[in-house]
């Protein structure tokens, strides 16, 4: 990933340069994955963003991070916003993400002694417009969950065991997603040993290798128990696997297949805009609507910072404002006197 140095005719290749951006980036990525424990996909995202930065430096003839100053980083930010060459202008959220990667790289270089100071510190990523997470209503969630179980209730006794097993799997998976707020990767990554139906709890392995124990509600517990007893043995008949959710081949269910399970139920229920992450948003929003403390929701979601969780409180405040505006006699714009 390092910059390519081309020797001009009649000149000597100067060889490695102190602070060469390419090798510094590679050490930085190793640091993210090996020492900070970032997930592999997160490291790949950093790599993609920093590749764009290296291209920018290469075009401008910069061969060492020691030669980069604040104006160079600001110029890169401007090219991201305005576009350059084959690159189209980026949204504020994408610019902010790339600048976070660049600033992290320069901070790492300064800490490692590759450069004298972190010249990127004064550069602030643009604040993206606030977008509230989408949440389904409780009725919409119930409709999706009911759609997943509907074929079972109408299926004749003695039907196709494989089809019945997949329906039980669908119900268990969706009840787990909504009942625990699990990410789709956490759900399909579950092993049987992660479930404790006696204590009604599940151990989820989240981002960065962090684990958390989340309680299982009655519906999720009953759906999982039914799946484990009546369906999973049918799916596991071909091969042994520790995974809770199995494919028809007996292997661990993929994220794409789990997505398909949810999409199929949503279409049957006639509910649009449903995704695994929307179920997670709905889990958090419905807890806060019910009076749960934001710190508790933070632990249940596995957020490192409570500020990430507090975005959901904005959803509930907006909902309260809507109810107030349509219900309170002095908020309706009416001049009708209020009788005590």
TrEMBL record:
Swiss-Prot/TrEMBL GO biological process terms: cell division; chromosome segregation; DNA transposition
Region Disordered: start-end pairs: 1-20
Annotated keywords: Cell cycle, Cell division, Chromosome partition, Cytoplasm, DNA integration, DNA recombination, DNA-binding
Any one Pfam family match given in the protein's UniProt record, by short name: Phage_int_SAM_1
Residue intervals of the Core-binding (CB) domain: 19-110
Database matches in CDD domains: INT_XerDC_C
Tagged with keyword Cell division: yes
Localization, UniProt: Cytoplasm
GO-annotated cellular components: cytoplasm
MF (Gene Ontology): DNA binding; tyrosine-based site-specific recombinase activity
Keyword Cell membrane attached: no
InterPro entries, sorted: CB, DNA_brk_join_enz, Integrase-like_cat_sf, Integrase_catalytic, Integrase_recombinase_N, Integrase_SAM-like_N, Tyrosine_recombinase_XerC/XerD, Tyrosine_recombinase_XerCD
All copies of domain Tyr recombinase, residue ranges: 131-325
Catalytic residues (positions): 183, 207, 277, 280, 303, 312 (o-(3'-phospho-dna)-tyrosine intermediate)
Subunit record text: Forms a cyclic heterotetrameric complex composed of two molecules of XerC and two molecules of XerD.
Job description of the protein: Site-specific tyrosine recombinase, which acts by catalyzing the cutting and rejoining of the recombining DNA molecules. The XerC-XerD complex is essential to convert dimers of the bacterial chromosome into monomers to permit their segregation at cell division. It also contributes to the segregational stability of plasmids.
Family, as annotated: Belongs to the 'phage' integrase family. XerC subfamily.
Protein name (database record): Tyrosine recombinase XerC
Gene: xerD
């Amino acid at each position: 990933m390092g910059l390519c140095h081309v020797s001009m005719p009649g000149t000597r290749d100067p060889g490695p340069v102190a602070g060469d951006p390419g090798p510094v980036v590679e050490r930085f990525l190793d640091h993210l994955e090996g020492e900070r424990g970032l997930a592999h996909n997160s490291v790949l995202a950093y790599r993609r963003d920093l590749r764009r930065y290296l291209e920018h430096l290469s075009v401008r003839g910069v061969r060492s991070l020691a030669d980069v100053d604040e104006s160079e980083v600001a110029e890169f930010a401007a090219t991201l916003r305005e576009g350059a060459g084959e690159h189209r202008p980026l949204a504020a959220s994408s610019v902010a993400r790339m600048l976070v990667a660049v600033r992290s790289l320069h901070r790492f270089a300064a800490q490692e002694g590759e450069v004298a100071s972190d010249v990127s510190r004064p550069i602030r990523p643009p604040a993206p417009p606030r977008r509230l997470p989408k949440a389904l209503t409780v009725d919409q969630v119930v409709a999706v969950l009911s759609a997943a179980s509907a074929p079972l209730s109408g299926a004749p006794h003695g039907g196709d065991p494989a089809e019945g097993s997949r329906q039980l799997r669908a119900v268990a998976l969706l009840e787990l997603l909504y009942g625990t707020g699990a990410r789709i990767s956490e759900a399909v990554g579950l092993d049987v040993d992660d479930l404790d139906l006696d204590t009604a709890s599940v151990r989820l392995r989240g981002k960065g290798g962090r684990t958390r124990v989340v309680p299982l509600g009655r519906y999720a517990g009953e759906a999982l128990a039914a799946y484990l007893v009546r369906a999973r043995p049918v799916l596991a008949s071909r091969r042994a696997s520790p995974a809770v959710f199995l494919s028809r081949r007996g292997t661990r269910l993929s994220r794409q297949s789990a997505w398909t399970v949810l999409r199929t139920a949503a279409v049957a229920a006639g509910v649009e805009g449903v995704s695994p992450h929307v179920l997670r948003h709905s889990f958090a929003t419905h807890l806060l609507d019910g009076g749960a403390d934001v710190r508790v929701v933070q632990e249940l979601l596995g957020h490192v910072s409570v500020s990430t969780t507090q975005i959901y409180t904005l959803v509930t405040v907006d909902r309260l404002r809507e109810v107030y505006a349509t219900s309170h006699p002095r908020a309706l714009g009416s001049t009708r006197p209020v009788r005590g």
